[in-house]
Structures are given as C-alpha cells and as structure tokens.
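--- STAGE predict ---
source: upstream dedup step, 1 unique chain passed
mode: sequence only
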Amino acid sequence: MGESRDVSQDTVDKLTKVIQTLKLRKQQRASEASRSFETLIVQWNQLKASIEEQQRSVGATSLISSSVDKVTRWGCLSPHVIEQVENEVKMLETWIS
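--- STAGE serialize ---
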C-alpha cells in the first residue's frame, strides 16, 4: 500500500477527454429529454390529464427544471428512459389527433 505510482500526462489527458465527452453526452441527452418532457406536459394539458395520470412520469419530468449539473440520479438520462417518454408522446399525439 505504501507503493507510489506516477500517472503520465498522456493518461491524464485521455481521462480529461473521456470526461469532456461524457459531459457533452449528458448535455445532449438532457436537452433531448427536456424537449420530450415539455411536449408531454403540453399534451397532458390538452387532454386535461389528471394528476394521477401524470404522476407516473413525475420523476422524469422533474428533470425539465433541473440544470444538467444537478441531474445525478443514475439512469435518468438513459436512452431507455428517453425512449419511454418519446413513446408516450407518440401515443398521446394519436389521442389528440
């Protein structure tokens, strides 16, 4: 445990690039999710959806008002979650049409 290891500048640079890439991906997913959630809320309003109907997505829609840096819950910006919201938007669009 007392052994010390030096980390090369190249390793630090690579890790910095990975972190920047992940932050960018998080920003992109947050923007995509926000657009879908905002559409979902508009649709709920058009359909006069009850609070109970809306509550199943409350955790996800709370992301709309969050800054990207404050979105820390594991998986909340996963492609699966975003796809679920997009599917619900599509379903509601058919009801509204």
